[in-house]
Design goal:
eight-stranded mixed β-sheet, alpha+beta, two-stranded antiparallel sheet, globular, disordered N terminus, single chain
Length: 467
């Protein structure tokens, strides 16, 4: 960021104006959330809560915030705090127990009854939208299909499927260039981490209504392509895209410290290297979560990234183990991808992961506050074991295509393991990377690589499975 005082003040003034219109002036602990007051009354009426849990519930909301609320006086530090508050508000709302597809269960509080499928897990996945034959996707409420190989093991229709062993599908990785073709992540049990991508209703509707789900539709689109923005004034959520990282749970894990799910771990067949198709129903634990949210004040999107707290280190003497770091391995090369060829069906030496940019003290304090709220609802809540790494946001949204992001670099150790650091154009920066995203017609795609998954229209789908 430009250190010149005059430049800095100008950036703050530019950003504060639209944020103030979103309801600024609230104290950080009282940050405005659309529907928060209504939820407070509902939270007070939820049965089975102690007085302490009810007090904590009044600070938690199932409604996703539509935009950031700026607090006064406006400084770079205060704005970072406001965006981090926005991230935590979003994390709580998106991980609220689901009552239906994209719908929160308003009769309970997050974590009240322990673990439960989260709202975002019911969102659409790219494979449901960008179909192999380029046809129109199923309706928003249609159940998920599953690969044929998974049906043979008796899996129920609609069971979640994890088939990605990198954070983006192969078509997108190939388009992103060599710096980002970095390889899979392997946990301390020598098992590949699995990844998922999800989009909310606003994103899905925009793609379907504009026929952006296939290559002819993208070629015909007049543009410019712009996902809907979250707005407090207009009462719109805006486009949200989520990336998740999961590891397979074993008897060695303390599963109560993870949000878990029963999913189909699916590996499609491959010829280079030769990998047989496989599918297994397994319990996985959430280890990483990216949330990208386009808002009126942040057309470059707000980028929030969370991790499970045991990813790279655990409290001394706790008896716990880190998911991706072995402190006893003094000869392990940190943050080195596994040697190819990559085969997720084969046990592979673990990745020795270290965090290259520490979580700063202000974010740690904010994490402790929100973790305390979640723990007060239920001491056994798994959500207390997640932490915000940071939030990247545009400090000058109208001044340049990338908006001069802060912080300059942002990495999740499970999603950008091998591109952590502070090297421009090489190290992970959500906004700078996604600014390069295009459609299949080579036009800017509003910071979303998903559109590169679009296929040509075919009368007969290609062979090899639906995923």
């Amino acid at each position: 960021m430009d250190p010149t005082p005059l430049r800095r003040l100008r950036l703050l003034a530019l950003l504060a104006a639209p944020l103030a219109a979103c309801g600024g002036g609230a104290e950080p602990d009282q940050a405005a959330i659309p529907g928060a007051s209504a939820f407070a009354a509902a939270g007070a009426g939820v049965p089975g809560l102690s007085a302490r849990a009810r007090a904590a519930a009044d600070s938690l909301s199932y409604q996703v915030p539509h935009d950031v609320t700026a607090t006064s006086p406006v400084t770079l530090a205060s704005l970072q705090r406001d965006f981090d508050e926005f991230s935590w508000q979003s994390f709580v709302a998106l991980n609220w127990p689901a009552a239906g597809i994209g719908v929160p269960d308003t009769t309970v509080v997050i974590g009240q009854n322990g673990d439960a499928p989260a709202v975002w897990e019911t969102y659409k996945e790219p494979y449901e939208v960008f179909l192999p034959d380029g046809s129109k996707p199923p309706a928003w409420g249609a159940p998920r299909d599953i690969p044929a190989a998974c049906r043979t093991i008796g899996a129920a229709a609609g069971t979640p499927v994890l088939n990605m062993t990198q954070k983006a599908p192969p078509q997108v990785l190939n388009a992103m260039g060599q710096p980002f073709r970095t390889g899979p992540l392997v946990d301390q049990d020598s098992t590949y981490v699995r990844f998922g991508i999800y989009m909310n209703r606003d994103s899905y509707d925009y793609l379907v209504n504009n026929t952006l789900y296939n290559q002819p539709g993208q070629a015909a689109f007049a543009g410019p392509l712009a996902f809907p923005s979250g707005s407090t004034q207009n009462d719109t959520v805006g486009g949200i895209v989520i990336k998740s990282a999961w590891r397979v749970m074993t008897a060695r894990d303390t599963q109560g410290r993870f949000h878990t799910a029963r999913v189909l771990v699916y590996t499609p067949a491959s010829t280079a290297p030769r990998v047989p198709e496989s599918c297994a129903l397994q319990t996985v634990g959430l280890v990483g979560l990216h949330v990208a949210h386009k808002t009126q004040s942040s057309p470059q999107w707000v980028w929030s990234t969370f991790e499970q707290v045991d990813n790279v280190q655990v409290p001394a003497g706790s008896g716990l183990r880190a998911s991706f770091n072995n402190p006893a391995c003094t000869t392990c090369t940190p943050n080195a991808p596994p040697t190819g060829p990559w085969n997720p069906n084969v046990k592979t030496p673990p990745t020795q992961v270290v965090r290259e940019i520490p979580i700063d003290s202000a974010t740690q304090a904010l994490n402790a506050k929100w973790q305390g709220r979640l723990r007060a609802v239920n001491p056994a809540s798994p959500w207390q074991y997640y932490e915000l790494v940071s939030t990247q946001w545009p400090t000058n949204a109208k001044g340049s295509p990338t908006g001069n992001p802060a912080p300059q670099f942002l990495a999740n150790v499970t999603l950008e393991t091998y591109v952590q650091g502070k090297v421009p154009n090489v190290s992970s920066s959500c906004i700078m990377c996604h600014n390069n995203a295009t459609t299949t017609a080579s036009r800017p795609s509003d910071f979303s690589y998903m559109l590169e998954l679009a296929q040509a229209v075919r009368s007969t789908p290609p062979t090899g499975g639906q995923r």
